[in-house]
């Protein structure tokens, strides 16, 4: 899929602005870095201007001075400093054109984990998490209101390992954050392979 995107003649890369719904507080060179993964898979091969790629400030994430709070504050300030032509704001929340979302086997999205206190935070756009149940423990993440304010949300699921949770998300509503992915509302679509969709009712 990515190869087709990279070579598509109709894509005007100059209009792309790329953000991260969450990021691990590690240097970009670390194998755990979401930015590093995106750069290797796509960004190094397409002509999006560097000034339109908004990665976490990894100088705040060196081994000796990791601060999720500082990284979250810095990232939010950068987003709030963008002109509305780049990032519109409505009712105090940023309106991203599209969020690509994955989910974990526990139903977490971004770095919003089941029954975690951050699920109920409604003020800041970007939240620090110091105790992620999935390593590394220090991360930053979009808040749930920011996720739901996006114009379009698209879940991407591939493989049999995603099948059970995908079915749970699509067939049930989450109770008090037990499945964070089920709390995503608004204009939501899914991209799934046959394996990930294998536990869905045929009528869905």
UniProtKB/TrEMBL annotation:
Belongs to the glucosamine/galactosamine-6-phosphate isomerase family. 6-phosphogluconolactonase subfamily. Pathway: Carbohydrate degradation; pentose phosphate pathway. One of its GO terms (biological process) is pentose-phosphate shunt. This is Probable 6-phosphogluconolactonase. InterPro entries: 6-phosphogluconolactonase_DevB, 6PGL, Glc/Gal-6P_isomerase, NagB/RpiA_transferase-like. It is an enzyme of class 3 (hydrolase). Its EC number is 3.1.1.31. Residues 6-188 form the Glucosamine/galactosamine-6-phosphate isomerase domain. One of its GO terms (molecular function) is 6-phosphogluconolactonase activity. It comes from the Eukaryota. It catalyses: 6-phospho-D-glucono-1,5-lactone + H2O = 6-phospho-D-gluconate + H(+). The lineage of its organism: Eukaryota, Viridiplantae, Chlorophyta, Pyramimonadophyceae, Pyramimonadales.
């Amino acid at each position: 899929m990515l190869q087709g995107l990279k070579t598509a003649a109709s894509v005007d890369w100059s209009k792309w602005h790329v953000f991260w719904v969450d990021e691990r507080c590690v240097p970009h060179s670390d194998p755990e870095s979401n930015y590093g993964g995106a750069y290797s898979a796509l960004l190094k091969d397409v002509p999006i201007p560097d000034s339109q790629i908004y990665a976490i400030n990894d100088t705040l994430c060196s081994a000796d001075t990791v601060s999720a709070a500082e990284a979250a504050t810095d990232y939010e300030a950068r987003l709030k400093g963008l002109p509305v032509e780049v990032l519109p704001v409505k009712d105090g929340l940023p309106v991203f054109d599209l969020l690509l979302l994955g989910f974990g086997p526990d139903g977490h999205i971004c770095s919003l984990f089941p029954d975690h206190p951050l699920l109920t935070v409604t003020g800041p756009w970007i939240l620090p998490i110091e105790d992620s149940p999935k390593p590394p423990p220090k991360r930053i993440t979009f808040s749930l209101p920011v996720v739901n304010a996006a114009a379009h949300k698209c879940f991407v699921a591939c493989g049999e390992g995603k099948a059970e949770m995908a079915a749970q998300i699509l067939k049930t509503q989450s109770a008090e954050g037990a499945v964070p992915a089920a709390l995503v509302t608004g204009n939501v679509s899914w991209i799934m392979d046959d394996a990930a969709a294998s536990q869905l009712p045929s009528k869905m």
